[in-house]
Automatic annotation (TrEMBL):
One of its GO terms (cellular component) is plasma membrane. One of its GO terms (molecular function) is cardiolipin synthase activity. It comes from the Bacteria. SMART domains: PLDc (SM00155). It comes from Arenicella chitinivorans. SUPFAM superfamilies: Phospholipase D/nuclease. It is an enzyme of class 2 (transferase). The gene is cls. This is Cardiolipin synthase. Residues 208-235, 388-410 form the PLD phosphodiesterase domain.
Length: 470
């Protein structure tokens, strides 16, 4: 006689696995990720479906779609956005791509300043906070409660005492990187702070993969700071210890700044609730001759805005491409775009960190580098400290800066921020920085990849198979 508990267990397993497979087939766009989840759900009874329920479902997209449409109505005065090319934004292929993908026109009259590492960026950010008179909006993935973190908290506290509106968003997972939470001290100081999608037990919420990875500081709707820089001592040289992370960050002055404010309000509304405030009617004066376009991206989007933009601008390159990123696990489509550019005679150079803070990311990307080297793509490893910089330069006028890495987590699962900058002088400065790093870096060769032991190659291949989930 069959044990009733065995029957009930089988029914529960079959039901959970069937539901997970059903959900995968209907909602997963990436067939490789869908197939991986289906195999996990079938081969790991109960554990597979539970893992998929916790980590594989995008719970953001449906809820956020309504808010995104509301934001689009504010910015673009349309009820439902369909990508399309505008005649007045089609001066060149590169200039039209961002609008076709995101619906956002280029904004002229901006000035972008590059800062190298926290030694340059933090003093500029703190000075801007000290000069704020109306509002300060700060978003960070990681906000450590160390020396530099406390300096930021002190500056925000002083601004609040002056009557400045201060709001801070810290990612719910990034907040856990510090044993002593900056959110605790911020609340103690009376700062309005919210954790973005924090993990919780009741009701259950473990959105490990749906993170707010944006780094953004907006001052009085007049200027903003964007890039890859988190807030923490590891980004600075100190007397007793050198920095452990290098990074790029940028100050943006000009009419593009109110769009950063609107993006912050959208994130704040999602995390805290409430209505989106009406955009400011203040006229922001032009500060330079750079045309910029903000491209937000996240799991709430129906279109992979940054991934599509990056693949498209790479496909439009005519002379040279520079890619600098800490995590390099491009999709098959992006790999094909890079290979095609190299085949057309475009010089493509990629700089990756020689010592990655996530060692498995280093293992995974080594499994695809030979595909790029085979077509003449130049890949080099930047020596330590770990480089967290994100930079894409195309030809002589285009740069893409911001928070996004070239890996599935960043381009498919995280809330990210990209800023296109069309400027020949800015492009030259970024190329100069890239070339300096390139000369200091070590080339990756076929011989090096081929000399890996069988065990190492198997390890790299196995980790590479998991790249959609890394």
């Amino acid at each position: 006689m069959i044990d009733i508990y065995v029957v009930l267990g089988f029914v529960a397993y079959f039901g959970a696995a069937t539901w997970a497979i059903y959900h995968n087939l209907l909602f997963k766009r990436d067939t490789r990720a869908a197939l991986g989840w289906i195999i996990i759900c079938v081969l790991l009874p109960f554990v597979g479906p539970i893992t998929y329920f916790l980590f594989g479902i995008n719970r953001i997209q449906r809820r956020a779609r309504g808010m995104r449409l509301a934001l689009l109505k504010v910015d673009y005065e349309i009820a439902d956005y369909v990508p399309q090319r505008r005649a007045d934004d089609a001066a060149s292929g590169l200039e039209s791509i961002g609008h076709t993908v995101s619906g956002r026109a280029l904004v002229a009259g901006n000035h972008v300043t590059a800062y190298y590492n926290g030694d340059e960026a933090y003093p500029a950010m703190l000075a801007a906070i000290d000069q704020a008179r109306k509002c300060i909006y700060l978003t960070s993935y990681i906000f450590r409660r160390d020396d530099i973190g406390r300096r930021f908290i002190d500056a925000l506290t002083e601004a609040k005492a002056r009557g400045v509106t201060v709001k801070v968003i810290i990612d719910g997972i990034g907040n856990l990187y510090s044993f002593k939470r900056s959110t605790t001290l911020l609340r103690r100081r009376g700062i309005d702070v919210v954790r973005f999608l924090p993990p919780r037990l009741l009701p259950p919420s473990v959105n490990i993969n749906l993170r707010n990875h944006r780094k953004m500081l907006v001052i009085d709707d007049q200027l903003g700071f964007v890039g890859g820089l988190n807030i923490g001592d590891q980004n600075m040289d100190r007397k007793n210890r050198l920095r452990s992370v290098t990074d790029l960050h940028f100050r943006v002055d000009g009419p593009i700044s109110p769009q950063l404010t609107q993006l912050f309000h959208y994130d704040w509304q999602y995390a805290r609730g409430g209505e989106l405030p009406k955009p400011s009617t203040d006229v922001i004066s032009e500060q330079g001759e750079m045309a910029c376009r903000l491209i937000p991206d996240g799991p709430d989007e129906s279109l992979d805005a940054l991934a599509t933009t990056i693949q498209s601008v790479i496909s439009c390159a005519e002379d040279r491409i520079a890619i600098m990123t800490p995590y390099f696990l491009p999709s098959r489509e992006m790999v094909s775009a890079i290979q095609s550019a190299a085949i057309r005679g475009v010089r493509v150079r990629v700089i990756l960190p020689a010592k990655n803070n996530l060692i498995y990311m280093h293992w995974a990307n080594r499994n695809l580098l030979s595909e790029l080297l085979n077509w003449g793509v130049e890949v080099r490893y930047q020596p330590p400290p770990f480089s967290h910089s994100k930079l894409l330069c195309i030809d002589d006028r285009y740069c893409l800066i911001g928070s996004a890495n070239l890996d599935p987590r960043s381009l498919r699962l995280n809330f990210e921020l990209g800023l296109e900058v069309f400027s020949a002088p800015f492009n030259r400065r970024m190329w100069h920085h890239f070339d300096q790093i390139y000369q200091q870096s070590t080339p990756v060769t076929f011989q090096e990849l081929a000399s890996r032991s069988v065990f190492v190659r198997l390890r790299d291949s196995l980790v590479s198979l998991m790249s959609p989930y890394l």
